[in-house]
Amino acid sequence: MPLETVFSFTSFLAVFGWLQLVLLPKHPIARTLAGVIVPLALAAAYLFLIVQNFAGAPGGFGSLADVALLFSRRELLLAGWIHYLAFDLFIGAWEIRDSQQHQIPHLVMIPCLAMTFMLGPIGLLFYFAIRTAKSRTVSDTFPESAI
Q: Is the dihedral of CA 116, 22, 25, 127 positive or negative?
């Protein structure tokens, strides 16, 4: 299969997962798709590319120059992209589950999801900032046992 086709398909699959989180955050099938099935499908594509292309590839992880050389091989660059897609979606699904446990409104979560989709770790930082601000409420400051 051509690399551009794999790129397009895996990117579409990831967007499908993100749409599930944004549009159907409480639906159990959507949560399973976005939080488990799609990330695992992406992980399988990643595994296939790594098994087929990593052995004997130039470069490595010892320096920035080594990483640049490793990713100069298009198959491994695509594997790196799929790695981002899988992990960012997995983190986005976790953010949704966690936000529901902490009663953070879904409208507040949409910008977090967008940031996690586009900027991974920055979205996670943004979510934790919101979660921390939300936890600093009167009920957290004064537990029921103290009232």
A: positive
- 111 three-state secondary structure: helix
In terms of Cβ atoms closer than 10 Å to its own Cβ (0-12, 13-18, 19+), residue 77 is middle
User: Which residue is associated with the tokens 């977090």?
Assistant: 112
At position 17, the amino acid (one-letter code) is: G
Residue type, 140: D
Task: Identify the sign of the CA torsion 9, 38, 115, 71.
Answer: negative
pLDDT in tens, 3-60: 999 999 999 999 999 999 999 999 999 999 999 999 999 999 999 999 999 999 999 9
> Could you tell me the pTM of the whole model?
0.88
Domain positions in the chain: 3-132
Alpha-carbon gap, residue 107 to 119, rounded angstroms? 19
CA distance 45 to 59: 21
For the purposes of burial, counting CB atoms within 10 Å of the CB of 96, is it exposed (0-12), middle (13-18) or buried (19 or more)?
buried
- Structural contact between residues 31 and 20, judged by C-beta atoms closer than 8 angstroms: yes
Which residues fall within 8 angstroms of residue 71, CB to CB, at 6 or more apart?
Answer: 59, 77, 80
